[in-house]
């Protein structure tokens, strides 16, 4: 090998001596496995999917799935490691914008946007509702695994959002704040996990794939519900 060839080969190596092309190939394989797992977990739930099915969907040997992620549970957790921090950062940024609002109505709307818009954006930028459907599965069928995931990845920002709602709705009890927050979550997850039913029922008028319109309607409806939705006093005292 000439000295020029040796220098060229050296430039194609990382500090560990592994060729860059090999590393790029490994990262592409990891990404393909994760993408396939997200789709299948979203369609069938955690318990309805095997490592072999994920490998077939990704077009890789089963051994590679275990090599890169250790186990099905490790792969499942990796989806949240990838997705959750981005959503967290966007929600915190949205709440910082809400803090700048002085008008109470606009402030409430900004808090609702901080919860809703990042998920609407994720669905449409990724062109997949897989992550939202995974959330829907985990929320509707709680297990030890899902409770741990929710506690680790979602509870911290949930507490921040709850505090923001309590601040902008000072006349509401914490019971009302918590009910309002969970109703918002339900509307968000159901809409984001939509598999075409909304478009079918509306004859093409409505689709979560229309990011701007979807966010506009969801935020407007939830903001109005939070602002005006109160349990009548008579019902609160009924045994």
Keywords:
single chain, elongated, mainly alpha, Tetracycline Repressor, domain 2, 239 residues
Characterization of this structure:
This protein has 239 residues and is an all-alpha fold. The chain has a domain of 153 residues: Tetracycline Repressor, domain 2 (Orthogonal Bundle). It is 77% helix and 0% strand. It contains twelve helices and no strands. It is elongated.
Task: Summarize this structure briefly.
This protein is mostly helical and 239 residues long. It is 77% helix and 0% strand.
Helix/strand layout:
Layout: H1 3-11, H2 20-44, H3 51-58, H4 62-69, H5 72-100, H6 104-126, H7 130-140, H8 144-168, H9 174-192, H10 197-201, H11 211-228, H12 233-236
Helix pairs in contact: 2-3, 2-5, 2-7, 3-4, 4-5, 5-6, 5-8, 6-8, 6-9, 6-11, 8-9, 9-11
Write down the Rg.
Answer: 22 Å
Distance from N terminus to C terminus (CA atoms, Å) equals 88 Å
The CATH homologous superfamily name of one domain equals Tetracycline Repressor, domain 2
- Profile the largest sheet: none
- CATH level-two architecture of one domain: Orthogonal Bundle
| Structure annotation, total helices | 12
What sequence of helices (H) and strands (E) makes up the elements? HHHHHHHHHHHH
Task: State the assembly state of the protein chains.
Answer: single chain
User: Could you tell me the strand content as a percent range?
Assistant: under 5%
* CATH fold title of one domain: Tetracycline Repressor, domain 2
Shape: elongated
Using the coordinates above, name the CATH class of one domain.
Mainly Alpha
């Amino acid at each position: 090998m000439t000295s020029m060839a040796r220098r060229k080969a050296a430039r194609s190596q990382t500090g560990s001596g592994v060729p860059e092309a090999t590393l790029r190939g490994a990262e592409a394989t990891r990404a393909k496995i994760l993408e396939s797992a997200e789709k299948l977990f979203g369609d069938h739930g955690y318990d309805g999917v095997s490592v072999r099915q994920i490998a077939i969907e990704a077009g890789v040997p089963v051994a590679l799935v275990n090599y890169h992620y250790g186990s099905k549970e490790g792969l499942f957790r990796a989806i949240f490691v990838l997705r959750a921090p981005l959503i967290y950062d966007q929600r915190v940024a949205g709440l910082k914008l809400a803090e700048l609002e002085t008008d109470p109505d606009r402030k409430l709307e900004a808090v609702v946007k901080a919860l809703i818009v990042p998920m609407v954006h994720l669905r449409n930028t990724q062109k997949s509702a897989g992550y939202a459907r995974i959330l829907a599965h985990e929320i509707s069928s709680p297990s030890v695994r899902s409770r741990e995931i929710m506690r680790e990845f979602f509870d911290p920002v949930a507490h921040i959002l709850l505090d923001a709602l309590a601040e902008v709705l000072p006349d509401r009890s914490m019971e009302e704040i918590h009910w309002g927050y969970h109703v918002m979550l339900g509307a968000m997850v159901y809409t984001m996990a939509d598999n075409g039913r909304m478009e079918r029922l509306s004859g093409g008028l409505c689709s979560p794939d229309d990011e701007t319109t979807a966010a506009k309607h969801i935020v407007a409806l939830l903001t109005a519900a939070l602002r005006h939705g109160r349990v009548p006093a008579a019902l609160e005292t009924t045994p």
